[in-house]
Structures are given as structure tokens and as C-alpha cells.
Design goal:
This protein is an alpha/beta fold. About 30% of the residues lie in helices and about 20% in strands. The chain has 2 domains: about 130 residues, Nucleotidyltransferase, domain 5 (2-Layer Sandwich), CATH 3.30.420.40; about 160 residues, Nucleotidyltransferase, domain 5, CATH 3.30.420.40. Bound molecules: zinc ion.
Length: about 325
């Protein structure tokens, strides 16, 4: 089966062609997501058409679209999205796909697709009950039961676990609450956390133009006091997040992904001794790093299109 996958991410738009579950071609363009989705349609169509040169469009089964927000995959609508592609809630993406490519379209939220991708083509093969935590600019989460992505009345269940409040006296989130997991430890929350440390001025981090987890890692490896203390707080928050997901959803597998997982030694810091805090009745819970951290959303789209074709044809 051949299909097209488009991942409208916050910073880049990734497009790939799939043939029988393997990526055959790929293109990436900048997202400029703060300016909206509609202004990116023309460049996205041109990039996909560029990849399709020399190919027969009618051999393609459909287009899969990933969005960084809550998606209704039945009505094919974006229901909730913050800070990115804010016009997408009022756009008809199905109509755009029909006009641009003449193909049927399916869509889903990016974090749910990432878990679907890992369960079908990555580290989660052979597992059915799983949760995913994606540590990046924000924190993404998704849940699967019996091999299927958990979807609820408003498609929120499992997808907003980054906004589970872990500190009632915590810092303001981008959402209406304070002390959410994402507001405590994430790419966007890092600078605030670093600057709030009592010894920040004396830290090497004070001389940096930009503060992100790569810079934090540099100073952490030099045993900078502020960097060590900040990482310790982040690790505590994420371990709490993992425990909350385990006790809420009873998974056999936890998949950890996202750019922050490249921080040296982080996997070990997040998992070491964690089983002592998991209720006995949860049994053994495997915790793995994603096999395709850059592409799991795209693999999820391949399987979404494939499942759609099986159901409707
Ligand atoms: Zn929040």
C-alpha cells in the first residue's frame, strides 16, 4: 500500500511517502505555526507534489494528517490547540486534501499517532496496553488499551496527562491552571525554572544567550550547581508524571520519547528504582525509549491510513 503522511508540527512540517510500511521519500519545510495553518497549505501541497513526481497519484490510498492538538478523527476537525495553527479549528482539512490531491484523508493528534507508530512499527510491537510520554517543547501523552488508542467523548482522555497537576502551589501553565506537569518541567518551562533558582546569577547558565536542555546538559556535565538542581527538579517531575500515568492507566509498557530524552543519562535517571513506587498489583511495567523518536508520528499515520482503508473498503 502507498500513502502520504503529513505531520504539521509546531516548528516544522514533515511530509513522507510510504510504500508497504517503509518511508520511500521525505521532505521537511518550516512551519511558521504561529501564523496559522492556511498560509502553509500552498507550500505543503507543492512539497508533496514534488515528492510525487514520476508517480501515479491514483496508486495512493490516502493522506494521513497529524496535528499538534486535540483532534476529532471521526468528523476530521481540530477541537483544541494552543499557540500553534490557531486557525485550524475552523478549517476543512478534508476538503483541502480532496482539492490538492484528490485523495481521502484521515487525521489524528500527533501524540496519539506517535504511540500508534511505536506499537505497530517500533519498540511497542507485541504490547497492547501502553502509555507514552513525549518530552519536548511541551509534554505529549497518549494511552492505548488492547492495541487501540484511547479516545473519549471529547477525545481528551489520555491526551492531556501533561496537564495533570503535580504541584498545587506550582507555576502558571499555558493552560488556565498552575503546577501542571508541563508547567513544572518542559522545554518551554525550563528558562523560568532556571532563572528562579537562588544561585542562578553565579551559574554558568546566566551567561548563556539561550536556555534549553542542550545548554542545561552542558552545564550539568560541568556539575554547575544550578544546572544540577534544575535537572533534579525536572527528573522528579517526570518520574511523578510516569507514576501518575502508570497508576491511572495500568499499562504493561511506558514509551519515553522526545528531544529531551537525548540528555545524557536521562533514561536511567527517570527509571532507576521507579518500580519501588509502583503499586504491587500493577505487576511489572516495562519502560522503553521510542525506537523512532523522529518518525513515530509518521509511522502512526501510515497505520491510520491502512486501518481506514481496511474499515472502509
Ligand atoms: Zn496546564
Amino acid at each position: 500500500m502507498k500513502s502520504i503522511a503529513i505531520d504539521f508540527g509546531g516548528s516544522s512540517i514533515k511530509m513522507v511517502l510510504f510504500q508497504d510500511g517503509k518511508i520511500s521519500k521525505r521532505r521537511t519545510i518550516p512551519a511558521y505555526s504561529h501564523k496559522g495553518l492556511a498560509p502553509r497549505f500552498a507550500d505543503t501541497e507543492a512539497a508533496v507534489r514534488g515528492m510525487l513526481e514520476g508517480e501515479e497519484l491514483r496508486e495512493y490510498a490516502g493522506v494521513g494528517i497529524a496535528m499538534p492538538g486535540i483532534v476529532d478523527p471521526v468528523r476530521k476537525k481540530v477541537l483544541g490547540i494552543y499557540d500553534k495553527y490557531e486557525d485550524s479549528k475552523s478549517l476543512d482539512l478534508e476538503q483541502w486534501c480532496r482539492e490538492a490531491f484528490g485523495l481521502p484523508m484521515v487525521m489524528e493528534m500527533d501524540s496519539k499517532l506517535a504511540l500508534m507508530g511505536e506499537l505497530n512499527s517500533g519498540c511497542g510491537q507485541g504490547y497492547k496496553d501502553a502509555v507514552m510520554l513525549i518530552l519536548g517543547t511541551g509534554v505529549g501523552t497518549a494511552v492505548a488499551f488492547d492495541g487501540k488508542i484511547l479516545n473519549s467523548r471529547n477525545y481528551v482522555a489520555g491526551a492531556l496527562s501533561s496537564h495533570i497537576i503535580i504541584n498545587m502551589d506550582g507555576d502558571q501553565c499555558t493552560c488556565p491552571n498552575s503546577g501542571c506537569l508541563e508547567a513544572t518541567a518542559s522545554g518551554w518551562a525550563l528558562e523560568r525554572l532556571v532563572r528562579s533558582q537562588p544561585e542562578y546569577i553565579a551559574s554558568g547558565l546566566a551567561g548563556e544567550d539561550e536556555i534549553n536542555f542542550r545548554i542545561l546538559e552542558k552545564w550539568y556535565l560541568k556539575q554547575d550547581k544550578t544546572a544540577v538542581s534544575v535537572l533534579k527538579k525536572c527528573v522528579k517531575a517526570w518520574r511523578t508524571g510516569i507514576l501518575n500515568l502508570i497508576h491511572a492507566y495500568d499499562p504493561e509498557l511506558v514509551v519515553l520519547s522526545g528531544a529531551i530524552m537525548n540528555f545524557r543519562g536521562l533514561y536511567q535517571m527517570l527509571t532507576e528504582g521507579l518500580d519501588r513506587f509502583i503499586w504491587d498489583c500493577c505487576g511489572h511495567v516495562e519502560i522503553k525509549r521510542a525506537e523512532h523518536p523522529e518518525d513515530s508520528v509518521l509511522y502512526g499515520l501510515y497505520h491510520l491510513v491502512k486501518n481506514f482503508m481496511t474499515v472502509y473498503n
